[in-house]
Amino acid sequence: SFDLSSLVIPLITLGVLCLLFKTIWIKSSGFISIGFGFIFAAMYGFEKLAIPLTNTSWMNQLLQLLDQHILYAFLVGVLITAIVQSSTVVTGIAMSFLNAGIFPLEIGIVIMLGANIGTCVTGLLASSGGGEEAWLTAFAHVWLTVMVAVICLPFISQLPNASSILSTHPDPQLAHASIIFHSGTPLL
Questions:
Q1: 3-class DSSP state for residue 23?
Q2: What span, in angstroms and rounded, lies between the C-alpha atoms of 48 and 90?
Q3: Would you give per-residue pLDDT tens digits along the chain (188 residues)?
Q4: How far is Cα 42 from Cα 179, in angstroms, rounded to an integer?
Q5: Which of 114, 144, 179, 186 could hold 74 in an S-S bridge, CB 3.0 to 4.6 Å?
Q6: CA dihedral sign of residues 129, 134, 136, 141
């Protein structure tokens, strides 16, 4: 939820400079720095694309549908995360839309809950090459995540209230809602 766009160029520059060294840990640090630079650049790009994207008729219709039916917002979170395999990216995209005032915090929270289920696809894909234990572990992760999300869905109206106590801006509120959600997961 922080504006990290000013770090893009310094991180990528530092990373490229580190790649010139032969020492493994310096070169590895360079790859990490470049990776973070690209992540911050992509998040900045998502934020800048959010408003122009909503000017298209099909996206406007989709956003209205998501606003009217939280189940669709939930499924969008699951599907997009299953495709990109990163709940953080999907939550970041939702933050961009929240920042632009395109949909309310409740829809962002529902998308975030769906994104947590969608990220289980990564574990399922990874377990496909493993044995029975790997498959059972991935399957248990899916069911635990689905169970926690289903338990949280009736409390969607309270989660924005709790996160609004911590911040007045919508994108940090979604980040706080995600932290509140994840801190409650081990308790179940």
A1: coil
A2: 15
A3: 566 778 889 999 999 999 999 999 999 999 999 999 988 888 778 777 777 777 778 877 887 788 888 888 889 889 988 888 788 888 888 887 887 778 888 888 888 888 988 888 888 888 888 888 888 988 888 888 888 888 877 877 777 777 778 778 877 888 888 887 777 655 44
A4: 22
A5: 114
A6: negative
Kindly state the tokens that stand for 63: 């956003």
Q: Which two tokens stand for residue 49?
A: 């694309």
Which residues, at least 6 apart from 72, have a Cβ–Cβ distance to it below 8 Å? 65, 66
Cα–Cα distance for residue pair 78/65, rounded to 1 Å: 16
Say how far residue 12 (Cα) sits from the centre of its chain: 22
Q: What is the DSSP letter of 20?
A: T
Burial class (CB in 10 A: 0-12, 13-18, 19+), 152: buried
